Amino acid sequence: MSELIELTNLCKSYDSRFLAVNNVNLKLPKGKIIGLLGPNGSGKTTLIKMLTGVLQPTSGEILIDGKPVGVESKAKVAYLPDRTYLSGGETIRQIIDFFKDFYADFSVERAEAMLQTLNIDLDKKVRTLSKGTKEKVQLILVMSRQADLYVLDEPIAGVDPAARDYILRTILDNYNPEATVLISTHLISDIEQVLDEVIFMRYGQLVLYTAVDNIREKYGKSVDAYFREVFSC
Amino acid sequence: MAWELDSDRPIYLQLVERIQMQIIAGYYPPGGKLPSVREMALNVAVNPNTMQKAYVELERVGLIVTNRTNGRTVTEDEELLTGIRKKMASEETEYFIRKLKELGFSNEDIENLIHEVIEGEGKDE
B9 contacts in A (CB within 8 Å)? Predict the structure, then answer.
C-alpha cells in the first residue's frame, strides 16, 4: 500500500511550555476515509493546519505524496477549515468562478449539481445565507475538487441531520479509490459507518490508529462507545 | 436507503449477513446481477472499502461469482444456496429453542407450542 501522508516526529508548540502536537509519527495510505478523533484541545486542528500548510511545524517532517508541504502539495489537497473564510459580499456564483480560476482540479458542473440538489440559489450573497447553508456551500466547494487528499475539519457540526446524511453521501459519492479523506469530528456515531480507519489523539499525542472494524471486533463496541471509554472524564 | 447496523459488531460482517439474506430470500435471484461495490455502498451509506470486504467474503463462500465481462452475479449453485438456507434456518431455530428453554419450556412444551401456533395461523386465514 502506497503512503499518501507521512508524519515524522511532528511537533508544534504555540508557546515554549506546551506542545499542541507532541511527537506524532504516522503514515496514512491512499484511498481511505479516515476519522481524526479526540477531545477538545487534543491537537486535531493544529495537525490539520500543518498538513495544509497554514501552520509551520516547530519540528519534525510532513510528506504528502513524498513531497514537503508547499505549493505543489496544496494543489492536490482540498481543505475545509473549521471556520468560514468566504467573504459576505460575493454571490455563490462569483465564488465558484474564483475557485475555478484558483484550482485546476475544480469542477464547476459538480459544484452546481450539488448546490442544485440542496436547493441553494447561486445568485445569493454569502452574507444572506444561514450558518448551516454556508457550511454546506463550503463543503461543496471543497468536494468539487478532484484532489488527492481532502481534509475536512468538523464538516458536519453545524448542519441539520438530513443535510448531514446528504453530506456523508456526498463524501461517499465523490469518493475516488486513489484519494484519501481525513475528517475531524466529535460526532463519531454519525460518521462511523463511512470510515475505514480512525486516529485517536489526546494531549497532542497519537493514542491509536486502527481500522474501525478492528475496534468492533476486538472490543465489541462501536467507535463512539470505545471513544467514550478511552476518553471518559 | 441506509441500513440500520448494530454498533457493536464489525460492519462488513453485518453487510455479509444482509446480502446473504437478500440472496437467500430471492431478492437477488440465482444468476442475477448484483450492484457494483460502489452502487451498493452508496445505497446503504457505508464506506466502499467496507462493502468491498463484504463482497470478497461472499465470493469466498461462493455465494457471489465474479465474471470478467459481466460484473458480479449470484451463484447458480442451487445446492450451495439450499445448504446456506438450511443453515440459516437451523441457526434461527436453535436461537428460538434456547430462548424458550430460558423461559423454562421443556422439549415437549416447545413441540406443543409450535403445533399450536402453526394451527392457529391456519385458522386466522
Answer: 216, 220
